[in-house]
């Protein structure tokens, strides 16, 4: 259910991004994306760790029979969200000189001042959203999130339609974002009280809530800081090596605002799974049900890998066609093709980070994220001279790969019953290679007889069917842990089949 709502939400956002790119161009999208990156940094500081902590603490108190403390935790979360967000809002509105240091383009400052009133109300909404997680009210959460996206899309299309000036269009798009934040805050607050939610004095809950939320907030703040650094450093480094300012912003808009949303598409599925897993894994962990915990972890990682195994080969083969079809821009398509490989480590990193956070290992995930992020920063600092904007793609591959590997090692250490997923990941990677080669052959063959759009659809469908059959034949569609490892017979058959495909 969460996945269906998330897919519809992401699809609406994706269509809106296409609309913006075709209306205000890559420069306008670049300005809009840079501003959102900075606003995302502020929102991470004010609200990222608190909702998860509120959710997990609610589950813990339910398991312990201390339901009377839940209202105190919610009130404490709202208290922290407000006292942290208000000073940041005032600094931006009062034009603090330090804020200008966050932007490589001064035009983004005025866009941020439009969006910033939404910081506090969105931070409070995030806490209320955490109560929906803790009560496993996923339908309520999903509907409000979808409606927020729909309000932004509808208002954005109404306001931006017909605007061709990049800055003016980005300005109206910023107003649409603010309106959507107000909507979700009002809707969620009313829903919380209608469903029987209460606010109580947070005395006694503030200190443990703050201590538990700080590592998650630090990690997610680091994520937003990295995103902001990318938005500032990458255009600056491109300019340093010969690009004009407008071209650098446009290229950043192409890769980060247009190509990366496609590359991050699997996060829709993985994020939905992680959302549902948080209360489930926390309950398994605190109740000592380690066998179910192990099975749920294996199921989550295997499903995540399976999803990206169906997406990566079509993107590798058809990336340029996809970019040209959606954005009428082959350069974006080339970035999509190059970035496709990012999907596997990214998905593993996302799901394992959520798993470890559910198991009270927030400090570890923070350290591992920072180690991986250092590779991204080094890449965009030193490689634009040689790779141009593609240095961002390489940096992301390195970042997610390092984080995913460290998270997998830590997950195995933490669980009393050790999850077994490495063999599954390796086998899925092996399946992707012949799938991509088969798709490349089909593309060359069918493009002679079909239109580009029809060939794209047919090739992608056949590639996924090929992969599904391979997963079925080698027992990889079992997500419940009944077949923990591929048998030696299946592995042998797989190797023989791989050699046969290579010769063909």
Structure overview:
The chain is mainly alpha-helical and 504 residues long. It is built from 20 helices and no strands.
Reported for the largest beta sheet, the result is: none
Number of strands: 0
Question: Poorly predicted ranges (pLDDT <50, ≥5 residues)?
Answer: 483-504
Order of helix and strand elements from N to C terminus = HHHHHHHHHHHHHHHHHHHH
User: What is the helix content?
Assistant: over 70%
**What overall geometry do the principal axes of the alpha carbons give?**
globular
**Mean pLDDT over all positions:** 85
Structural class: mainly alpha
Percentage of β-strand residues: under 5%
Radius of gyration: 23 Å
**Number of DSSP helical runs:** 20
Distance between the termini: 41 Å
Label this structure with key terms:
about 500 residues; globular; mainly alpha; single chain
Indicate the topology.
Layout (H helix, E strand, L loop, with lengths): L1 H46 L1 H16 L5 H24 L3 H4 L6 H9 L2 H17 L3 H23 L5 H29 L11 H35 L4 H19 L2 H22 L2 H38 L2 H10 L3 H16 L3 H21 L1 H4 L2 H25 L7 H25 L5 H22 L14 H16 L1
Helix pairs in contact: 1-3, 1-5, 1-6, 1-7, 1-8, 1-9, 1-10, 1-11, 2-3, 2-6, 2-9, 2-11, 3-6, 5-8, 6-8, 7-8, 9-10, 9-15, 10-13, 11-12, 11-14, 12-13, 12-14, 12-18, 12-19, 14-17, 15-17, 18-19, 18-20
């Amino acid at each position: 259910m969460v996945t269906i709502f998330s897919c519809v939400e992401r699809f609406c956002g994706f269509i809106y991004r296409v609309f913006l790119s075709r209306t205000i161009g890559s420069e306008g999208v670049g300005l809009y994306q840079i501003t959102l990156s900075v606003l995302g940094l502020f929102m991470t500081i004010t609200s990222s760790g608190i909702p998860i902590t509120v959710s997990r603490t609610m589950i813990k108190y339910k398991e312990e029979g201390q339901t009377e403390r839940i209202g105190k935790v919610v009130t404490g979360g709202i208290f922290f969200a407000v006292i942290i967000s208000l000073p940041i809002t005032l600094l931006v509105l009062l034009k603090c000189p330090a804020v200008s240091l966050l932007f490589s383009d001064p035009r983004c400052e005025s866009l941020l001042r439009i969006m910033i009133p939404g910081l506090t109300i969105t931070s409070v909404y995030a806490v209320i959203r955490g109560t929906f997680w803790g009560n496993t009210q996923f339908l309520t959460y999903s509907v409000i999130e979808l409606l927020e996206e729909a309000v932004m899309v509808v208002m954005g299309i109404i306001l931006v339609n017909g605007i061709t000036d990049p800055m003016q269009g980005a300005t109206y798009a910023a107003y649409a974002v603010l309106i959507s934040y107000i909507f979700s805050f009002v809707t969620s607050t009313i829903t919380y009280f209608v469903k029987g939610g209460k606010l109580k004095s947070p005395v006694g809950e503030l200190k443990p809530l703050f201590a538990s939320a700080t590592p998650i907030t630090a990690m997610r703040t680091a994520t937003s800081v990295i995103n902001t650094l990318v938005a500032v450093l990458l255009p600056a480094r491109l300019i340093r090596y010969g690009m004009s300012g407008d071209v650098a912003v446009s290229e950043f808009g192409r890769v980060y605002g247009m190509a990366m949303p496609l590359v991050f598409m699997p996060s829709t599925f993985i994020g939905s799974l992680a959302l549902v897993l948080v209360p489930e894994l926390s309950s398994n962990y605190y109740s000592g049900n380690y066998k179910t915990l192990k099975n749920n972890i294996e199921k989550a990682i295997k499903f995540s890998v399976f999803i990206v195994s169906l997406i990566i080969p079509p993107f590798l083969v058809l990336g340029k066609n996809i970019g040209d079809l959606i954005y009428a821009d082959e350069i974006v398509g080339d970035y999509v093709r190059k970035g496709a490989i990012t999907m596997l480590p990214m998905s593993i990193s996302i799901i394992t980070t959520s798993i470890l956070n559910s198991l009270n290992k927030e400090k570890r995930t923070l350290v591992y994220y920072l180690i991986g992020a250092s590779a991204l920063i080094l890449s965009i600092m030193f490689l634009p001279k040689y790779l141009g904007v593609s240095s961002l793609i390489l940096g992301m591959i390195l970042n997610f790969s390092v984080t995913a590997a460290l998270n997998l090692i830590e997950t195995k250490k933490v669980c009393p019953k050790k999850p077994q997923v490495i063999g599954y990941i390796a086998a899925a990677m092996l399946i992707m290679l012949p799938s991509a080669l088969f798709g490349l052959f089909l593309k060359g063959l069918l493009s002679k007889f079909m239109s580009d759009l029809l060939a794209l659809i047919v090739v992608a469908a056949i590639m996924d069917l090929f992969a599904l059959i391979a997963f079925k034949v080698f027992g990889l569609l079992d997500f419940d842990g009944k077949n923990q490892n591929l048998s030696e017979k299946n592995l042998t058959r797989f190797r023989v089949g791989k050699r046969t495909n290579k010769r063909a």
